[in-house]
Structures
1.
Amino acid sequence: MPLLQVKNMTHFFSGLRAVHNYNLVIEPGEIHGLIGPNGAGKTTIFNLITGVYTPTEGEILLEGKSIVGLQPHEIASRGLGRTFQNMRLWRHMTVLEHVKMAHYSKLTYGLVGAFFGTAKRYREEGEIEEHSMELLELLGVAQFADQNVLNLPYGVQRKVEMARALAVKPKILFLDEPTVGMTPEELVGMMEVFRTIHKEFGPAIFLIEHRMKVVMELCEQIQTLNFGEVIAEGTPEQIQRNPKVIEAYLGKEEVE
Amino acid sequence: MTYFFQNVINALQWGSFYALIALGYAMVYSILMLFNFAHGDIFMAGSYIGFGVATGLLYLVTSGFFSLPHWLILVLTIIISMFLTSFLGILVERIGYRPLRNAPRASAAITGLMIGIILETGNLALLGARRLGFPSLIMTKTYEMGGVFVTNKKILVVLVSLGLMLALDQFVRKTKWGMAMRAMSYDFVVVPLMGVSIDVIAPLTFAIGSALAAAGGVLYGIAYPVLDPYMGILIGWKAFVAAILGGRGSIMGAALAGFLLGFIEIFVTMIFPSTLRDLIAFSIVLVILTFRPYGFFGKPYSAKLRL
């Protein structure tokens, strides 16, 4: 059984067809890439699967169960983690707090514990803090734990976002342009992070990416999207040679 | 010089009320991006609830059900009033604000004004237009320190207020609820993915803000023992000014600005006739805001980023 399966998904934004007849199969542990020009509908597909929008038509199965119509947090709690194009970090909170916050649903102490500081609260907070620090160490950003994210370099912020998404141990991780705006050095570091994550936690990864280097090196399967439709699908080698892909990115060659 | 220190003590007490009320404005604003204009009347309601609790406890003690020292009645009054008033805050959120969460901001602001009027006139209908005297739970004792006179009530007001502010600070910084509140003040998309619901955090914020206002109301009743249904309006507006001055949504900023406002008012009356107090004090605030339009701790960023 595939981990995630999307069948014939179509979505309209008040008459405008944003996604047409989209299909996807991701097996456990697989790294799957989604590429395409700006405005092709990549983020819309992410938002449809993660429950931000409900698709007009089609089926979405996570571990064989339909998740269409569920709230984003319900889908998240079934093991779908995601990062965002614009990161959405909480400006004046520390790195450690970001990762601790991701454990929110694992903290079971109530208001009494919060106001009067019961032993349970301190034990739970302690455990979560330890786990969060381990995660930050794995991603190589533990030394920034007590700093506000606002003051940190962009590459570090990206890793913090990644740690936050990983904290809930997702079975599949959706990454929306995780290397956008990175310097070449940061890019190398980030790819190392992807490999570490994949080795340590083994989640499937569904990746939107513009940088061909990243997609070609990491992904096993790639889909190319244009105007809401998949125009090519296959391994990195197949995609690279596909004339439709080249056309979508570079425009059609005029033959005189 | 003793005159100066005398006024510092007075300003600390006066500022405590503003600070306790301003915290409620700031907390609600940081989550919902709107000011709860009923908050001054929640302060009033808290004071009346405190009156009821104190009177009830005193009645039970005098009719011999149990015996409690008066200082303990005072402590219980503060705690029980905070607890009860927090439910009023939850009710205001549930009935007044939740149905309008996606409505235009102006409608939600007007809701606050209406709830305020309902609380005032409801009180008027329930208890009549007479003023009530807050039961005097502790005898006023005056201590003299080098020519400065300090009453035990002033010490009580300042210490309880500071204690509550410290507790709030710990709550917001160290607990999962506090973390969720802070995270939600930046973002409405990722936070819910972690299982945090706005339908839990918003009422909790109202509850805590209202409990602090109730503590302010009880302390106010002890310091100035005359209650009337409109007592919350002016002090509520001024605390609102303090919340803006502290920086919209900044919790500690609101507390500090509350004290600052207390200091400005008291020190204006030190120099000018007291009839000019608000005129001059708020002119000063206006000038401060001209140079610090985001307040002391406010940050210029767009609420749109959260959605």
2.
Amino acid sequence: MNSRRIPLIEEGIPAREIIATKKFVRSKKIMGAILIFAILMMYAMFLLSPFYTIFITSFVNQIDLQSTNSFIWWPRTWSFDGFKNLFTYSPMPDEISVELLFAFGNTFLIAIITSVSSLFFSGMAAFAYSKIRFKGSNALFFVQLCTMMIPAATLTVPSFIFFNQLGWTKGELSYLPVVLPAMFGGATVIFFLRSYMTSIPDEVIEAAKIDGLSPFKTYLKIIIPEAFPAFIAQFIFAFVASYNSYLKPLLYLADDPHHYTLQIFLQEYSGTFKANPNYLCSSVLVALVPLILIFIVTQKFFIEGVTVGGGKE
Amino acid sequence: MTDAEGLVSKDLIIPRRKKKVSKETWFGIIAVSIPLLSYLIFNFFPLMISFALQFCSIENSDLSTMVWNNFGNFKEVFADPKFYLSIGVTFFVTLAQFISLAISLFISVLLHKKPIGAKLFAVLFFIPYICSSVATAMMWQWMFNSQRGIINTILVALAGEGARVNWFSDADAYRWTIIIATVWAAPGYGIVMYKAALNAVNPTLYEAADIDGANSLKKFVKITLPSIAPTTFYLLMTGIIAGLQSFDIANMFALIYSHDTIGGPQNAGLTLVRYIYYEATEGHNMGIAAVMSWVLFIIVFIASFINFRTRRKWVNE
Amino acid sequence: MANLKLKNIFKIYSSFDKKNSSYQAVTNFNLDIKDGEFVVFVGPSGCGKSTTLRMIAGLEEITRGDLYIGDRLVNDIPAKDRNIAMVFQNYALYPHMSAYENIAFGLRNKLNEVPVLDKDGNEIKVVDKKAIKQLKYEIKLIKDTYYLDEKIQELLKEEKEIESKLGTGKKDPEYKANAEKAKSIKGEIKKLIAEYKKNGNAVCDEAIKEKEAQINTLTATPSIAKTKKVHLPKEEINSKTMAAAEVLGITELLKRKPREMSGGQRQRVALGRALVRNPEVFLLDEPLSNLDAKLRVSMRSEITRLHQELKTTFIYVTHDQIEAMTMGDRIVVMDKGVIQQVDTPTNLFDFPNNIFVAGFIGTPQMNFFHVKMKKEARHVEFVFEDGEKMQFSLQSMRKIADSYLDGNTHDVVLGVRGENILSSKEGIHLKVLDVENLGNETQLTLEGDKDASSSYKNINIKVPYRVSSKVGDEVSISLQPEGIHLFDKETTLSIMEAKSVIKDGKEENKF
């Protein structure tokens, strides 16, 4: 039993005491709530601190930065130097171009192409695994699952050698190693989509069969619309992952500034302007803003994408 | 051989043709093979090449210059003190995953009590996870700046100049930079997963426990933890595997401290993958990089295997 | 509109992991369904009724046997080309489409062959490629199998017979012998085919020549109008969809999505989708099982009405024998993959062929007693388990098979429905276990008196009035002879003829 029992009126305890006990319990609860809120607030501060610092520093005057010895909490004057440089910077002296645009453009193109394509093929495989009976389906699914086991890092060097041999590490072809392998679907996405698709009733597919749809058409017209929430969730995930990817683009696209993705650009930019924290911070800010916006708008799908797949295995 | 319209029976017995492969089987096999083939070509095949590479020396990543050199690469790698150092660093950095897991559990439990602003907090807590590792590294690099970083500014304000830490030049401090940055970024994922898992716990279990007289701590340990064990297991698995492959932040930080080492002061931040990357790109030592990649593979495999085996013990499903 | 023939249909599932382990879901299913008939497949769960329906639809492969829709052998024809429509238990509506879209979907996918006209509006004649393809296929078939030859036909017939016997399962002692025979027949067929290939066969060669000639004429002269495949015009799709919607009374629901409709409405949309295909056969797989009782009754009559209007063949699967009895022209009772009896509802009720059918049809269930019967002069004496004896004249019961009227004592199973049990002063002594007052009739459950060593359990009686009996009351029962059904103990088959008794006079019974 609880160590502090709330006394019953029947036992002859005066009403005053009852109220007092209730108040005690209630205040205990309030204390608890305040404590929880305080902890969460502190954690929130911890999480927000980097954003705060780069936000502020982006707007600090160049001169002020050089003359101080500690972190500047609030800009004396709000300066846009950082952003100006960002939007005019180009590492290629003989061209009139803005490197930032190249970086964004490359990143978005690659992200969209690979995400859409990967989803299309993953979905098709997921449909086949979940709804179509064919010989070898279990064995092949097992193999597909095994591919998840091989850590990505162990594949970077071998792939690099492989692509180098094909000549895909130089020139325009260097986009291929980044785009091509990611276009045809992957184990995690297939797994996720498959478990979602099992909730589509078989009879709907059978009805489509009777209505004359081939399996492929069934995929296009019935499965994709039905599993749309799952597709969207995975698309956003894949898009963000591609947007943020670093190692792969670094290996293949870092030679030519025209090919830079956003992350490579950030790295190069930070290296070039080591001495200008306001430039660095503004670049990070500009790189983060699109993603954070997308996230806030689509957070419901995002969270769906994370949870439905991973809780079970 | 295409189908006919269906033979008309005039009370003749028409022998059945052999079964042919149905449309569905074709679709199934093709649909499933596309991702597998792509993996085979772009990943598995190169993997086999790298396996062979371990035993060869090669010039400038040109496969035509592959020359068998027995175990020369192995000898080099296993005699290299930096190699062992990098493994140690990698394990150390993986610690951050455990810390993240604990944090995400703790925060999720707090959020589950539905305080004010819980929804807002939840959204906020996930944002670090979607920041790219490059952005994270750059943000924290600025936070750790010895002169103008916010951390040192606060430390000095609180405890004077002696409290200033040279994050990027002091090996001991450098170690922690990677961990702190990871701990900042990683828990978001776990928080979301635990949120779902906590919501899925059967509330009547708690009610039964209340009747049995259990206090909050007991309820947590005996009901909550076991119920969310599958999620814990999953997060642990993915966390460890990710931790062992740490590269992005380590790489970015190392580029900042680019003096005489490849992994920060005294190579305190030389994770295995960073080392592999270095050997592959600037060191031009494909054979060595291959050997180290396979060592990493084995480490990850063993970790997953152990994790998987112990699952049965503490996940009751 | 078409008739159906199912000949020796088997469905055998073989598992990939265990060798030689297979599950026989449907065994030797033979049925001729007349055009326009309403046939019901009924039976307990797992009896194979849905599997059979799905084989007819083309959703399951027919392991063995032949399926004819109309006169076409459709085993290898895909579902969409079989001219059938199916209504599923959980409606199977496309969730992301409106009711209108659901119904129109099949129509949108349909491709019609439409003649291509030249500038003057005349048909362009082309070679009939389809017929040529068909002929080529037939020629190949003849060349491979020589099936037109008489001898081959006989062998094929034998093979089919043997195969149908094979189906009774591996435990059957004759299985091995039959399997061997089937093998040897196959061998003979092979030999014959080889021989004909070498030496030729008159009938087949002629047929081949004929067909080849036909091919030649067809190739030479364009005989068919050139056609192109077009989708149905929008107006047609619309009018057909609206027509179907009107028939089913769902015109106001057309814009809604399935999740915005009740179960009954969804079922109507599913019916509409089937209706609009204008099929030769309607297949319905437990369509009312997901509806509540009242709705079920009203939908039942709707479906029957639909059938009467359309006059198309309906095949209906249900596990509810009341549904079966009220809707079907003929009912196919199945158990464990085997047809138990095919008959009209009344015949099934009055003349069940075996214990299973007797126990399955009719609520409450028929009561069964193990008795010893012996013919004495012009009556039969039944001795019950507790020693109780009853006698009935031969005339008062249905005609019993002669082999049981030889004066010897036979162990048989006696079945009698609750409505044919009377209370009497003498008879089997039982105690009242439960009284169910259903308003205008009463159902009593009785069980054996435990002291007098008997094993009677859950004997039910039904009377069309209220009674004053209470739980625990002791009663004695006797039977109405015209309601007695007798079955052989081993084979469970009925040993009586399927003709009713001509009765004169009726006893009044009161409880």
